[in-house]
Amino acid sequence: MQKISPFLWFNNEAEAAAKFYVSVFKKGSNKDTKIIKIARYGDAGPGPKGSVMTVAFRLAGMELTALNGGPHFKFTPAISLVVSCATQKEIDTLWQKLSSVPAAEQCGWLVDKYGLSWQIVPAFIGEVMASKDAAKANRVMAALLPMKKLDLATLKQAAAVAISRRSSERRRRADRL
After folding, report:
1. Which of these, 27, 105, 89, 18, lies nearest to 60 by C-alpha position?
2. Largest CA distance in the chain
3. For 70-86, how does the pLDDT look when each residue is reduced to its tens digit (9 = 90+)?
4. Cα–Cα–Cα angle for 27, 144, 166, nearest 5°?
5. What's the pTM value of the predicted model, to 2 decimals?
6. What Cα–Cα distance (Å) separates residue 66 from each residue in 15, 18, 152?
7. Under DSSP, is residue 58 helix (H, G, I), strand (E, B) or coil?
């Protein structure tokens, strides 16, 4: 078991949510995505005896726990799960399966049918945003901000344009010398 893992509070949908998330991320016989165990409330409650209390599950190797804790707390976009995607097809597939609140979509963020926020992003985005090349990061950010679902080709083009411009500037400086 990993030392730190997300613990997600649901009203009474913990099992349904965990099964849904496993179905979204399970590919073929992926053993890194599965329901691990289900714990039920006993005589001490606070939920009805025999009802699902928690569901431990794994998504692409990351362990999470879902709790049926009642209606006291709701998810907010202040916390989200980030999924790094290698291809546009992966972005499109996850977006189609997870997005449930079109009005909440922005900059690669979506909200699923359980109210949980996700960021569906290209794998290279973190590296670009942390780049020492401010022009590259700014161009990618400018391309990303108006998008809902991220377009990998457009973001790569924005990154490449920054590289292209830098190369052109170097050539112009070299020509002046």
Report:
1. 27
2. 83
3. 999 999 999 999 999 99
4. 115
5. 0.87
6. 7, 7, 31
7. strand
